[in-house]
Amino acid sequence: MNALELMGTLNGSLNMIGYGLATLGPGIGVGLIFAAVIQGTARQPEARGSMLSTAWIGFAVVEALAIIGIALAFALS
Fold first, then answer.
1. What is the per-residue pLDDT across 19-75, written as a single tens digit (0 to 9) for each?
2. What is the CATH classification number for the domain harbouring 35?
3. End-to-end CA distance of the chain
């Protein structure tokens, strides 16, 4: 295996390591979104429905960022 083949293999691996690190953001984001809903429901139970619908929209946006990240990780490799 020459140096050029080694760099190609290493570059593909670095893309996946970068994506693995990038998944921390959406994971933390989802946790914060639903933690806020739980705290809001504890403070004002009658507003649960409105908070939960907003939380699902936020969850979808955060997960869309994760899906874009995996697509870019494969597209750049």
1. 888 888 888 999 999 999 999 999 999 999 999 999 999 999 999 988 888 888 778
2. 1.20.20.10
3. 19
Number of domains in the chain: 1
What 25-29 contacts at long range (C-beta under 8 Å, 24+ apart), as own/partner pairs, is 25/65, 26/62, 26/63, 26/65, 26/66, 26/69, 29/58, 29/62
- Domain hosting residue 71, numbered range: 3-75
Place of tokens 């995996």: 70
Torsion of CA 64, 70, 71, 77, to 10 degrees: 160
Encoding tokens for residue 57?
């929209």
Residue in 61, 73, 67, 51 with CA at minimum distance from that of residue 30:
61
